[in-house]
Design goal:
Chain lengths: 249, 289
């Protein structure tokens, strides 16, 4: 599903503050795989995710998604396949727009935004049903601005928004970093459920090693812009939580 | 009474600027100074075409196209060349001064014996009231179009662009193109105000746009005060409040002149008035905490 071939990304090339964020990574992610990437700050994991999403264009190497070469394709075109959840709950939703309008945009992620009114009663009903599945009691608040909700609620809704339109790849960039432990758990469980139910290929970046241990079908540790460990499903199953902590020892 | 009727009519004429600033400032979060230039551009194009006896159905589209081009230029400079939006607007506004002067050929075009949109129809005998009804119809049509636009999928994407750029890019919107389109729409509306004012006051002048952006800002800020006060989320009510803001703004100016304040101090009074509306809610807000 995602092919990353000998990718390099250099920021501020030739200047005193040059950063080699990603150094020649090769990675093939198969359809339906749930990859967890861990690594200390500055290990290049967020840059790798941004390379996949298109927010960052590589210095060299190629990236393909679903058989299409997307190496130089801007992020807004890659949305045809990719849905994203950001570290900051404010980035994944529009605060001043109603929950309903946010969902409307998510429902036409892969389609052109035309000059017709798409929010009708049928759509409202559909959104209410989707939101009710979260069990947060938000289904009667769809006319409220997104900004009136808590970070946890917004992250959960962002996750739900990602499957409003056809989605093949889900990118989760530390989705629980800004949340309290309880909200974080709800968000992670929702993510895990969506990934399984919709057979999404997904990449989760996290600093929470417990989440890295509990979720995902494959785990990768990055450091200095390279891959240090790469354990597939079988090896990950044998991995003990203490081993994971030892990686950072 | 006539004094206030004139203020009302002017307020309606300025509703184009108010809606334009609402789009650039509130929806896209871009302080767009192009306004000063595109307003005069609207007046200049109107004046030149009227003096060449062109019909209304050519003049209005030409005015809107001219304004949209100016706005799109600011948008392109801002997004493609990555230049600060404020500076991009100042650049285009400065360039427009020469364009407007070249178009007009001199600094003032009197439009006394030319046709005008206000004499197209005779609904009532009193010319001021006739102007009022024509303006009201005009403003209603423009507001309906903008209101509808903001409710469409395109409009929601537009509103999201100024609100959360990362989100809307992840949802498949080219934000650069969206900003260029938005600034084009905003400045087309501003140019329409120039079109209306030039015909309303009977001349187009090279200096008619100096500081006019404050009229739009003032209207939007008055509207915003009410929007925050009553926690309004409806697009339609917001647009109506912006129109109301444009009229209130002109009433305040008319009132200032009527109590005998020197006309040379008018811009100072305008600035102080806008400062007051901006600062009053914050002052009282601080006290309540």
């Amino acid at each position: 599903m995602i092919g990353i071939n000998n990718i390099h990304k250099v920021f501020n090339k030739g200047k005193a503050n040059q950063v080699n964020a990603v150094n020649g990574i090769n990675l093939q992610i198969n359809n339906g795989e749930f990859v967890v990437i861990v690594g200390s700050n500055g290990s290049g994991k967020t840059t790798l995710l941004n390379l996949v999403s298109g927010s960052v264009i590589p210095t060299s190497g190629t990236i393909s998604i679903d058989g299409h070469d997307v190496t130089t394709m801007p992020d807004y075109k890659r949305s045809e396949w990719i849905a994203r959840v950001f570290q900051n709950p404010l980035s994944g939703t529009a605060s001043d727009l109603s929950i309903l309008d946010n969902f409307r945009l998510a429902a036409i992620r892969t389609k052109p935004k035309g000059l017709s009114i798409g929010v009708d009663d049928a759509f409202k009903k559909q959104v209410k049903e989707k939101i009710a599945s979260l069990g947060m009691g938000l289904e009667n608040k769809i006319a409220q601005p997104m900004g009136t909700l808590s970070g946890g609620q917004r992250q959960a809704l962002t996750l739900l928004m990602s499957i409003m339109d056809s989605c093949k790849v889900l990118l989760l960039d530390e989705p629980t970093a800004a949340l309290d432990p309880r909200s974080a758990e709800v968000v992670m469980k929702t993510a895990d459920k969506l990934v399984k139910d919709f057979n999404l290929t997904s990449i989760l970046i996290t600093h929470n090693l417990k989440d890295g241990y509990n979720y995902g079908t494959r785990i990768i540790q990055m450091g200095e812009g390279t891959i240090l460990h790469d354990l597939d499903t079988d090896k990950k199953a044998k991995l003990k939580q203490s081993d994971l902590f030892d990686w950072f020892g | 009474m006539d004094f206030y009727l004139t203020a009302l009519l002017q307020g309606l004429c300025f509703s184009g600027i108010a809606l334009g600033i609402y789009i650039s400032m509130k929806i896209f979060n871009i302080p767009d100074i192009t306004t000063d230039g595109s307003y005069t551009l609207g007046g200049a194009v109107t004046g030149v075409l009227l003096l060449h006896n062109q019909p209304s159905y050519i003049i209005l589209p030409a005015v809107m196209l001219a304004g949209a081009t100016a706005g799109a230029l600011t948008g392109i400079i801002h997004t493609k060349l990555k230049i600060n939006a404020l500076l991009a607007g100042i650049l285009v506004m400065t360039a427009l001064y020469s364009i407007n002067l070249t178009l007009m050929g001199r600094s003032n075009l009197p439009l006394i014996n030319t046709a005008s949109v206000f004499t197209l129809l005779h609904l009532v005998s009193d010319p001021n009231q006739n102007t009022f009804w024509i303006l009201l119809f005009f403003v209603a049509v423009v507001t309906l179009i903008i209101g509808y636009l903001l409710k469409t999928d395109f409009g929601i994407a537009m509103r999201a662009t100024g609100n959360s750029e990362t989100m809307i890019r992840a949802l498949g919107v080219n934000t650069d193109r969206m900003k260029i389109t938005g600034l084009a729409i905003a400045n087309a509306l501003t140019a329409v105000s120039g079109y209306l004012i030039a015909q309303f006051q009977g001349f187009a002048d090279i200096s008619m746009g100096i500081g006019i952006v404050i009229v739009g800002l003032g209207s939007v800020i008055i509207a915003e005060a009410f929007i925050n006060w009553f926690r309004i989320t409806s697009v339609w009510i917001s647009l109506l409040l912006v129109l109301g803001g444009a009229v209130i703004f002109q009433f305040v100016l008319a009132f200032t002149l009527s109590i005998g304040i020197d006309a040379t101090l008018l811009k100072l009074v305008t600035a102080v008035f806008v400062l007051l509306i901006v600062s009053l809610p914050r002052l009282s807000f601080n006290r309540s905490i």
